[in-house]
Amino acid sequence: MKRNFLTFILISFVSLFMLANHCFAQEAKRKVIRWGSSRAGSAGYVVLFGVAKIVNDRAPELYIEAVPTGGSIASQRMMGKGELDGSYSGTWNLLDMYMNRGPYEKSPYPPQAIKPYQTWYTYQTQQFVATKSDRADIKSWRDLAGKKVCIPFPGTAVFEVPKAAFTAMGIWDKMKVVDLALSGIPDALNMGTIDAVVSYANGGVLVPWMAEVDSRCKIKVVNPTPADEQIVKKVSGYVIGLLDAQKVFSQDVGVAQVFTICDYYGFHIGKNLSKEHGYKLFKILIENAQEIEKVHAMMKEYARDPLGMQVKAIGSIPKIPVHPGVAKYLQEKGLWQKEWIVGAE
Fold it and tell me: What are the CA-CA distances from residue 317 to residues 13, 141, 266 (Å)?
């Protein structure tokens, strides 16, 4: 009896050991992708964290590790140092990196480092101009000349995109640009410390600090004049969009449609991910859009037309290479444009 019991224990131990080794071997075969996101708790981080699980559950050969970073530029910098395999970037960020402009003008991306290709876009940052509803002197963007305008986050695309638009209009140097703590913007508007603010929605959802402005201030949205719209549209690196004001704001903001300049954000990787793996990854992300929609409210826009978003984003920066796996999928769907560039494998 004792001998049989010991034999049973030994067989059980060996079986468990073999099972553990098998599981370890399977895990060892998975390609781990350290993918940068944004700050922990931010929308960018929440999206990647949720999407990572969706991919990991469906691709036994891949494992995405969502890594919080200081933001899109920090994410790109970490990839340049080899600390990440993929980055969180907007279209404007990618242009900055490839063209050595903006934050890369004095400190270029390391020439020998793997650069991220355009891979997967998730939402738009939709920027617009708001002011107090009683400001009769501010009727369009051109009226911002000579005014104190709060534009958050200098050194980021959220700052650089409207700067490019206002520069094209010829009013940037005439504006008094102010940087404030986000929590202080409602009071600054109400007290007249600032005249207007450039804010944004992500995927049609106001960012929290602008939702606070919407709840505490009587505001209106001002759009560019038709003539200035044409000027703003000619700037490369972003796209033009419209938001339904009634769906975005809790109050009447004076316009039915909000004119926006939009920078597409997403998650990008380079030739360190093979064409085959890139194809499998992208296929999962596109074909499980309804699951991805549940990750965050701003992903509803993505879920409505996931492929359409990719085409529009890539088309806004056509000279930046696209991951070969993504290119293969778009080619299969008949969506690839001849002027786009496939990244080297």
Answer: 58, 25, 14
Cα 147 to Cα 256: distance, rounded to the nearest angstrom: 25
Are 97 and 111 contacting, i.e. CB atoms less than 8 angstroms apart? Answer: no
Rounded Cα gap, residues 126 and 257, in angstroms:
13
Distance from chain centroid for Cα 229: 24
Cα distance between residue 249 and residue 211, in whole Å: 8
How open is the CA angle 298-302-307, to the nearest 5 degrees? 165
* 338 — pLDDT class (breaks 50, 70, 90): very high
pLDDT tens for each residue of 263-281: 999 999 999 999 999 999 9
Over residues 88-109, mean pLDDT: 95
User: Taken in order 70, 114, 299, 310, is the CA torsion positive or negative?
Assistant: positive
Is the pTM higher than 0.85? The answer reads: no
Sequence-separated (6 or more) residues with CB below 8 Å from residue 40: 68
Q: Where are the alpha helices (DSSP H) in 32-153?
A: 43-58, 72-80, 91-99
Give strand ranges (E) for 37-172.
Answer: 62-67, 86-90, 117-132, 148-150
| Torsion of Cα atoms, 95 then 98 then 100 then 102, to 10° | 20
Please compute Rg for the chain using Cα positions: 24
Cα dihedral sign, 168-118-308-221: negative
Residues counted in the chain: 345
Domain segments of the chain: what residues? 30-123+265-332, 125-263
The pair of three-digit structure tokens given for residue 17, joined into one six-digit string:
């050991």
> Which of the four CATH numbers 3.40.190.10, 3.40.1190.10, 3.40.50.10610, 3.30.420.10 does domain 125-263 have?
3.40.190.10
Provide CATH code, domain 30-123+265-332: 3.40.190.10
Do 30-123+265-332 and 125-263 share a fold?
yes
